[in-house]
């Protein structure tokens, strides 16, 4: 047997070492619990955002977590329940920020579309159009000026039509026997301005449709659309892509619209039957009306005014056609016994002739042809005498000018001139409607699609000791 002893100093050192080791172990346990809490939360948030709406991605290349999970009943608690399902039962989650596809006039939707278009097509797809934007703006201004001229002229044309009808009635009754009037009447068996009154009364669609084109009768309820109804809105701040309203970005988003949504003149590969609530979707995005017919009418009238301004400018420089217009004006003035009105009638004839050529141009566009961008004597299509029959069935369909522009080019121009927020939100209208009708997703709502999320998370580590940490995730 041997005696052992320990000094007070060694005892204190031993106790301190045991305490130190115990403290290290406890700190390691706490840190491990913190890490596990973070890992579980990160794993859960990645998992729930992996449950994106499959059809939205496949059809429209946009990510969105449909927060009702197919029930149509959305609540933020649905997201927290899914977090717990993926292994965070012991963690308390509080949503501090959330962004939906429709927030800030469709910011997240627009950002994802631009990212997709840049990745798949590149910015080069719109480079050829960037130099045309100033011309488009100028054409829009000219179209607006032409609308004012046409509006002012319609009053005079209506008065003139009244005088012509009165003269015809007198001739029918045998009240006029003057040779001058009879001779003029032989040259004018019809009214060259009647088609303008038809446009005013029934719309441009009534005179420009090709024979083989039928107007869609589909309608929607505007109050149910994303851009019209009250929306679920998010909260909190999230990163915003810079330069979304630049010229190239606007053109790029518009190319997406032209690719994803159908219009009144589909290309050959777009002719398959689709179960959509509207057939003229791009026209709806431009006009926002509840029926295909109204949307087409609105778009065609804008094109009509732009074409009319171009045609009117050409007629003012063409001496040969100016002479023809003057002869017709003299005939009309003689018919109504007002020779002093010949110069004023000549201007009305020129306006009507420009409008008639525009009708022919639009018929060509609706037939899938191209219309000349710059008019010359060689590519002018409408004769002055054809105005008498314009608006009747069997009219001139218009030639195909390979160096001209097509209907889709005009849609591209009008989309660029349209407010970007309107284009974005109405594109969301069509996206939601199409997923409902084509994919039978009756529960789908764009404003229930989560794109970014911020949460404060609290984990209980040891007895009453808790650990709080934030987490943020979003589709990019």
Give structural notes:
- This protein has 476 residues and is α+β, with helices and mostly antiparallel strands.
- It is 55% helix and 8% strand.
- The protein has helices at 8-49, 54-60, 76-85, 103-120, 127-130, 133-173, 179-187, 194-202, 205-208, 247-260, 281-287, 292-315, 319-335, 342-366, 407-417, 420-438; strands spanning 65-66, 91-100, 449-462, 465-474.
- Strands 1, 2, 3 and 4 form a four-stranded antiparallel β-sheet that branches.
- Helix 13 (319-335) crosses helix 14.
- The chain starts with 7 loop residues before the first helix and ends with a strand.
Q: List the quaternary state of the chains.
A: single chain
Largest sheet: 4 strands, antiparallel
SS summary, helix count: 16
**Percent of residues in beta strands:** 5-15%
Question: What helical percentage do the residues reach?
Answer: 40-55%
Report the span from N to C terminus: 77 Å
Low-pLDDT ranges: 176-189
The 3D shape can be described as: rod-shaped
The rounded Rg comes to 35 Å
Please report the total strand number as a whole number: 4
| Mean pLDDT score | 88
Key traits:
476 residues, single chain, alpha+beta, 55% helix, rod-shaped
